[in-house]
Amino acid sequence: MDCRCSSSRRIEANLFFTFFGLDAIHKKRWEHIKVAAVGNPGLHFATLAGGLPGVSSVMTHYMERKMDKLDIPHIPEFIEMIADTGAGLYGCKASVDLFELTKDDLIEQVKEIITMGEFYGLAAGGQIIFTCRLITGQPKGVVEGLTGRVVEIGFGSGLNVDLYPPRVDRVYAVEPAEVARRLAEKRVEKSSITIQHFGLNGQPIPLASESCDSALSPFTLCTIRDVQRVLTEVHRVMRPGARFHFLERGLSSDRRVARVASNRSSFVSAMAAT
Length: 274
Ligand SMILES: C[S@@+](CC[C@H](N)C(=O)[O-])C[C@H]1O[C@@H](n2cnc3c(N)ncnc32)[C@H](O)[C@@H]1O
Known about the structure:
9 strands; disordered N terminus; 274 residues
């Protein structure tokens, strides 16, 4: 649904800006967003050609001219139009922390900086939700080696369901957001693995101590406020020798790496550990 018509139809619309999408609500950047020429399948360019100096600028200029011809507003105007309809604009807390921003760096129309979980809470009861996974295809590695009974923290919309290895028997899905659980329904139904949902937030996990063979947490710890408490619970329900696999994004302690991530010339580092 185009947010611009949502308020005239009395439909509440909220937008969540995360990672590089934050640029669209960043005071200094929203007027200078460029078309990505590398790895952009829509441009039908060879990756190498897209990486040549100036290609991104030329493509951006070309797109801007086309948009002008079609009377399509540029990003700042477009965002202002959306905000004027009463739609809520929210910045992602993990991304704001990652890029070391504050609310002052964002345009004044941004209502709040919230976590993904809080946004799911806002969207609860909504009829339409668009989610876009930032990193595709990559979590395979993080589920490899999981066995037996797995507790998954932040099950979300169940994007990992098709990736569980055959040695996984049962998944205890810890996910507080009703919207996410609803989005997961079809994947859960189709799965040959028994997936049991806990509509809880991992504090506490309603499982006996030492009852799980593995634990999984992809892209979730960054959205949890009381991480210590959740990790203590995960530790409690894991049997001795169980594996905990997690995938996170965070700002590197190496300044050069951090700068590269902040400049977006390379993708945010993700870390998998067992
Ligand atoms: C960024 S999403 C990742 C979802 C999924 N793991 C994925 O990779 O697509 C983070 C998820 O963590 C959930 N979450 C937030 N707080 C939580 C908590 N205290 N315990 C468990 N899950 C939580 C959110 O509702 C959200 O579904």
